[in-house]
Amino acid sequence: MSATTFAQHLLTGISLGGAYALIAIGYTMVYGILRLINFAHGDIFMISGYFMIFAMASFPWFIAIPVALIGTVILGVVIEKAAYKPLRSAPRMSIMISAIGVSYLLENLATYLFTAIPKAYPEIPFLKKILTFGGITTSLVTLLTPVLTVVLVVLLMQLINHTKIGMAMRAVSKDTEASRLMGIKVDNTISMTFIIGCLLAGIGAILYFTDRMTVYPYSGSLPGLKCFVAAVLGGIGSIPGAVIGGFIIGICETFLVAFGYSTFSDAFTFLLLIIILLVRPTGLFGEAATDKV
Amino acid sequence: MNKKTRNTILNILLVALVVGLLCFFQSDTSSHSYAISIIERSVIYAVVAVAMNLLNGFTGLFSLGQAGFMAIGAYVTAILTIPVEMRDSVYYMNGIAGWLHDLHAPMVVALLIGGLFAAAAAALIGIPILRLKSDYLAIATLGFAEIIRALLAAPMMDQITNGSYGLNNIPGFKNIFQPVALAVICIGIMVLLINSSFGRAFKAIREDDIAAEAMGINLFHHKELSFVISSFFTGIAGGMLAIYMRSIDTKTFQVMLTYNILLIVVLGGIGSVTGSVIGSFLINGGQEWLRFLDDDTFKIMGVHIPLFRPGFRMVVYSVLLMVVVLFWRRGIMGNNEFSWDGLFGLFKRKKKKVSAGGES
């Protein structure tokens, strides 16, 4: 493999990883606060792709993007209020089944409303601009994705570490009951977590689908699971961890495909998950939580 | 007449009714082919649902790997039962591995071998991942199901699994009694297991694993046992599904299949064997009876309903799952088993309620 091809694949991998990282943050934040694998997160990401298609059909891109993002956020909050909030005190298994149920519902609803045939994703003209330098050809979106990811993560870290709502989030994820006693509005904090997670998933969807060019009802399920793996890999609950996990998985996947093992690229992700869970269950950056008996 | 004789008589009547119904369907297979296919499908799903319940409901291990173990069972059964003379035409693209070409087994033996393969895979997988807790276990088993599917579809396995072309020409069931009898035997064995000392140990682990360990139950040993046995029967059910469908490929065994089975288990009640069986018949029967939901030309009393078009049935199903999870967490049976006493008790209670309601 020549240096140029290597650089080309590396760039594609980093770009894919950036989109994964944005989705993985949603998983890691929700898991950190609710101890729930939000199986529906990947499907929210998929629906966001459809929102963008319809928004682009009637608005220019600079209005369509906020419209699609707001739609995604509303969807996420509605799901949280309708499907997860009533089960706060229920056993963990029930709330997980509820999450699976939402995922099942969104996939079937998308099949029903938009048919199973892949829909073409609208092109945002300037994102698709082709750039060439030093033998590497790439589109602007590929370069923009990792940069945007890093910028958003830095902003998010500021939000979490230096604002009141961020402090509330950290408190709730440490101990829900104690933070309720301290006067933190737990439900609002959880909604805020979903808002941020869905917003990032929406941005991730724009970047991911602009590269992929089609959306279909199941296009969210596998990336969703992979991003969860990315979150576990980085250490669940840790935002920088999720980002690095996303990049690792994106790059590994691209290179597996490049070397001709595309059938194994999905299997590899899960193998990575299992190895991580066995060797270092807290992930790369996770804090070890002591299990109280 | 005391309760015991009444229950025996009712049991005999129920069995006679079921056998009579099956004989009735069998007597004229061509005109009842629809009902037969629903029943076959239901009993196969019932076996998987009970196997999943053994793990999720009775041992408290939330596993989502069913589709993978079904795939193993299905492929092993299919490879062993495809008639030898048909094999060259089934594997026309890649050819079949030499050692496999003349390997043939009768249906029941093939199913057993399929189950054993699934159990062996579960035993291997179980050693590392049964240490994980609740949701991590779920995602790890889900991951393994995907890995199994990827392996079955891998180009290196082309001469064995026929890669992405799938396998066809699998001989079907000869009559309706075969799948029903197999399912009854499988579920019967699982019920015996649940009522044995092992079953009590499983339930103890479900309730509180630390207390169970303190009582001298070897946690890992019992979790592994439950996982292996559940996978064994899941594998057998996968084999039955292959025989029922007569052609399979790896797309049959996607995560969606696991979710469908989860729907059956949740609807029937987590921790109830009879609930799972009832759930399976309701879901599979419903899948056919509700087919009008997918029909965009269907009219209710002459009124055309614009909602009805392909895909609507699955939406109704998923809404149903959500409603059950949110408002009716016990499902149909909760964690009780069906019994005649319970059924009559239900009627009596209803009557009492009605009369009490009348007085007030």
From TrEMBL, chain A:
Stretches that traverse the bilayer: 6-29, 36-55, 95-118, 130-160, 189-208, 228-249, 256-279
InterPro entries linked: ABC_transp_permease, BCAA_transport_permease
Main location: membrane
Subcellular location: Cell membrane
Lipid bilayer topology: Multi-pass membrane protein
Top-rank taxon: Bacteria
Keywords: Amino-acid transport, Cell inner membrane, Cell membrane, Membrane, Transmembrane, Transmembrane helix, Transport
PANTHER family listed in its UniProt record: BRANCHED-CHAIN AMINO ACID TRANSPORT SYSTEM PERMEASE PROTEIN LIVH, HIGH-AFFINITY BRANCHED-CHAIN AMINO ACID TRANSPORT SYSTEM PERMEASE PROTEIN LIVH
Family per similarity comment: Belongs to the binding-protein-dependent transport system permease family. LivHM subfamily.
Protein name (database record): Branched-chain amino acid ABC transporter permease
Automatic annotation (TrEMBL), chain B:
Protein's organism: Jingyaoa shaoxingensis
Residue ranges crossing the lipid bilayer per the database entry: 43-62, 67-84, 104-129, 136-156, 176-194, 225-245, 257-283, 311-328
The organism's place on the tree of life at top rank: Bacteria
Keyword Thylakoid set for record: no
Location of the protein in the cell: Cell membrane
Keywords linked to the UniProt accession: Cell membrane, Membrane, Transmembrane, Transmembrane helix
Name of the protein described by the UniProt record: Branched-chain amino acid ABC transporter permease
CDD domains registered for this protein in UniProt: TM_PBP1_LivM_like (cd06581)
Primary site of residence: membrane
Entry keyword S-adenosyl-L-methionine: no
Alphabetized InterPro entries for the sequence: ABC_transp_permease, LivM-like
Coiled-coil intervals: none
Topology relative to the membrane: Multi-pass membrane protein
